[in-house]
């Protein structure tokens, strides 16, 4: 999914200077952003207070939206560079097309994973016809410097491993959790998992103390380490945890995001991640002149133009503002 804001603001991310080296409970509120005509998302990362969780650098939560009489998601062809995108659905379907020729409908609890590497473009839309409800999350993972120029590729994994405990089913989206490993390709130590909790569940999930973590609430009423987390909000948890207490007052679902703190400093602007002003300026020029990012065939509409670069220089800095 794209950042469709017409006046894109640079996010200066990365570095370990602001990683919280101990367990914390920092509740992050979302910012509402309009995507197209009928989809509004709640943006949790980048956030005014926190820019990254491990290599996770962008998190949008959307829905549940009733799109029975609406076009649903309509994201025109747009570029990516230096990152991976993760499409994750609880309800509905998203039709993916990209400049490699991939055409794939992603359905609930299936992994749609783009590794943009040096350059890719893609579109996303609700199929016609489509399901009544649309609910999911779109996430980005920053690629380390040694992998950010890799050849682009798309993966679709309909079957993912699970970890179970009384009242809990954890689907491993990326990385590994409690011995279960996702088939999705990763380039840094991280984990992404969808945690489904039944009403009355009271469990403790094993964690890696070297990772930093956050939990995105998707639905229901869940308490994470004693903190109630409402759908569309995110609780940052810091590092140093060996387990995570979870309770559910109703059937609930949350996403666990974590990883080794990302040491490199980044410039994230619009749909590009680079290491300098020159990186993103060149990417914008290449997209606007039709080179490098390829062409998406089959989408009924024009591709998305890039916004203007800000008038001030972009410099890579730390993880929080």
From TrEMBL:
Domain Pirin C-terminal: 193-293
Family to which the UniProt record says this protein belongs: Belongs to the pirin family.
SUPFAM superfamilies: RmlC-like cupins (SSF51182)
Residue ranges of domain Pirin N-terminal in the record: 41-141
Note on how the cofactor is bound: Binds 1 Fe cation per subunit.
MF term (GO), any: metal ion binding
Region annotation (Disordered) ranges: 299-321
Residues engaged in binding Fe cation: 78, 80, 122, 124
InterPro entries for this protein: Pirin, Pirin_C_dom, Pirin_N_dom, RmlC-like_jellyroll, RmlC_Cupin_sf
Keywords (A to Z) from UniProt: Iron, Metal-binding
PANTHER family the UniProt entry points to: PIRIN, PIRIN-RELATED
Protein name per the record: Pirin
Requisite cofactors: Fe cation
